[in-house]
Amino acid sequence: MSESRAHAVIDLAALQQNFRTTQQRSEGREIIAVIKADAYGHGAVRVAQTLAGVGCRRLAVVTVDEAAELREAGVAGEILVLGGLSASREARMVAEYDLCPVVHHFRELPLVLEAAREAPAPLGVEIEVDTGMQRMGVAQSEALSLSEAVEADPLLNLSGIFTHFSHADDVSPEISLRQTELFRSLIHELRAAGIAPGSVHAANSSALHVGPPLLDALPEATAVRPGLMLYGATVAPHEDPQQRFRPVMSVRTRVVAVREVRPGEGVGYGGSWRASRATRVATLPIGYADGVLRTLSNRGQIWLAGARRPMVGRVSMDYLTVEIGDSPVEVGDSATYFGLSSEGDGGIPVEEQSSAADTIAYELLVSVGNRLPREPLGDE
C-alpha cells in the first residue's frame, strides 16, 4: 500500500474500457472527451494520454489554462475550450497552443479575432447555442446572425456548433427532445443560408444513457461529449444495468490509531457522536481537505476489514473516525473512502457516498484534494 496518508488509485484500464463502451453507445459519432476540472479529479494529463492511446482525438476543457497544461505535457489533437475567452492573455494562448475556443455571444468576437490574428491559419471556433439551459450560449434568435458573422470573417472558421441539455438525467426525455427540436431548426437555418455547421453535438453522458430516443432525434449530430461516464460513475437513473461502466477512481487510506471508547464518551469536535456502549474506534488520516465532505459526519461509511464501518463524530480537516466494535482492525490496515478496496473484497460506490453526503458523484470526485497523490493502475 502507498506510504502516503491517503491516495487515489486511478484505474487506467477501466478508463480505456469505459471509452470503448462509450464508443458503442455513440453509434459511430466522434467522441469529444470532457476532461475539465483536472479530468473530474482524475488527473487531466494522464487521462488525456490514456484516452489518446485508444483513439480519442478530441478533448474538451473549460478554461484556456486547462488546455495549456495539456499542450505543455505534449497532448495533441483538438482541444475545445468550452468557457471561451475573457482576456487578451487567453487570446494569445489560443493562438500559441492551437486551441478551439467556443463563442457564446457577439461581444466575445473581438477577443476571438485577436487570437485569430496571431494564428498561422484561420482559427477554428465553435458556437454554443442556448436551447433551454439558460446558462451559457448564444440565444436561439441570434445564433444564425452570429454564425454568419463568423463565417464571413476570413480569419475565422466555423468548425462546430452545439447545445447542452438541461434535463438529460430525467427519466423522461421530453424536455431534451424539445431542446433537440430547437437545435435542429437552427441547423436547417444554417444550411439554408449556405453555412456548413461543422461538427454538430449535443449529447452528454446522461443523453448517451437515454440512447436512441435522443440520439435518433438529432441525426445531424456528428459527435458526442461524454464526461462522467468515462470515469465510471452513474449519471442517471435510466442507465442500462446490463452495460455497466467500471469505476476509475478509488480513494484509499490506512488506520493510524485504534482506541477504546467507554459508554457515554464523545468522539471528535463537539462530541457530536457518543458511544451507547463500550466500543472501539479507528482513526483514518483523511478529512475534508482531501475531499471527504463534512456533511458525511455521522452519516457516511468506510470500507474497512471487509465490511462497511460507520463514520462517527465530525469529519475534520485531516482526520475522521469510524466505529469498529470488536472487529479485528489494527493500525496500518487499509481503508477505502469510495471505490474498490485494495484487497478486492468490496468497497463503496462513489454514488452511494455522494448520496449520503446529500450531493452528486461529480462533487465528490472533483473534491478529492491535491495533497492526495494519484497513483495509476496500469493501462491495458
From the structure above, extract its key features:
TIM Barrel, elongated, alpha/beta, 2 domains, 9-stranded parallel β-sheet, 30% helix, 21 strands, 10-stranded mixed β-sheet, 12 helices, Lyase, Ornithine Decarboxylase, Chain A, domain 1, 380 residues
Count of alpha and pi helical runs = 12
Helix/sheet category: alpha/beta
Number of domains: 2
The overall pLDDT, averaged over residues, is 95
Q: What name goes with the CATH superfamily of the largest domain?
A: Alanine racemase
Measured by DSSP, the beta-strand proportion falls in 15-25%
Low-confidence stretches: none
| CA-based shape | elongated
Oligomer: single chain
- Helix percent band: 25-40%
The biggest beta sheet is recorded as:
10 strands, mixed
How many DSSP-defined strands? 21
Q: What is the CATH third-level topology name of the largest domain? A: TIM Barrel
Distance between the termini: 22 Å
Overall radius of gyration: 24 Å
Per CATH, the architecture of the largest domain is: Alpha-Beta Barrel
Overall CATH class of the largest domain? Alpha Beta
